[in-house]
Amino acid sequence: MIPAFEKNQVDDIVNAFNKYGAVVVKGMGVNPQLRKEITEVLNQIEPSVDEGGFFAGHTKRVASIVRRFPSCHQHVAHPATMTILDKILKPNCSDYQFHASGILAIQPGAREQTLHREEDTFFSMQKRDMKNRPTLIVATMLAITDFTKENGATLIVPGSHKWPAVDGKSSSFSPQARKATPEEVVSAEMKAGDMLIWHGLTLHAGGANTTKDVDREGLIMTYSLGWLRTEENFHLSSGTFEQVKTYPKIIRELCGYKMHGGGLGFYDDMRDVMGAKSPGIFGTLIGSNQTTNSKL
Ligand SMILES: O=C(O)CCC(=O)C(=O)O
Ligand SMILES: [Fe+2]
After folding, report:
1. Atom 2 (ligand 1): residue with closest C-alpha?
2. What pTM does this model have?
């Protein structure tokens, strides 16, 4: 069982996240317009074919959700999610950022995905010494439909975010890495509108869908420390700059249209891409009169 709390029980959520590496937040809700748009898009695409690798077949994956589903914006920047991330990620960055996104629809016949860690992409940080490293990624999965063990609810290995590294470099896929036994794996069962949150080092995977006719639809939204390279390239996937300018400020900022800490990601004349002049540390080092080449 994965502990579950109401969205206002922030301390309980954060404590359970730290202890088990996964927690369910009940009653986050699903924008009805989003539900409609997801169905329309899913009806137009074919499920993947199983090639025997990391991704299971019989699955529809739709990325670039910020551009494709503007009605998901309220979920990407949900105040309850932001409050939780403030507590988990903010201590180690000026601002956290959106890291990757997707609609994941697991259909009947899909096998289990390979167990993995979202932080596997930062393979040079694979030491599991949690005392000396910050949490890099927090992943969330909003249940668009009910998630059951039978229809492919996300599989979680509680506590695996604290498993020690076998060697300094091993990823979840290394032969030396500790593997989860079947008893250690639990299904994150949820009602539609509940949201699973898990640690970037927690072993997890999409479950197998053993039903005859029940799809499992989820919206995955992951977040990371603002000074890391994001898994999804939001400067390309969020839409044209003209489109991005119409998005709410918080969405633009989560998608990297803002400098981090006043120094990372400047665009022109040390402004951020939305035009805000924010010299930050550079301003104090070189002086703000260095940023006046607007005629070039
Ligand atoms: O579909 C799921 O439940 C999990 C998917 C996942 O972990 C991933 O694609 O990284
Ligand atoms: Fe994953």
Report:
1. 206
2. 0.93
pLDDT tens-digit readout, 12-24 = 999 999 999 999 9
Name beta bridge partners: 190.
147
Q: Quick check: 29 pLDDT over 70?
A: yes
User: How many A from CA of 242 to the centre of ligand 1?
Assistant: 31
Per-chain mean pLDDT for the chain: 90
Judged by its nearest atom, the ligand closest to the C-alpha of residue 54 is 1
Which fold does the domain 4-257 belong to in CATH? Jelly Rolls (2.60.120)
Closest CA to 200 of 134, 287, 280, 288: 134
Ligand 1 within 6 A of 219 CB?
Answer: no
User: Is any ligand 1 atom within 6 A of the Cβ of residue 200?
Assistant: no
Q: What is the pLDDT of residues 248-290, one digit of tens each?
A: 999 999 999 999 987 898 887 667 777 776 555 555 544 544 4
* Ranges of each domain in the chain: 4-257, 264-296
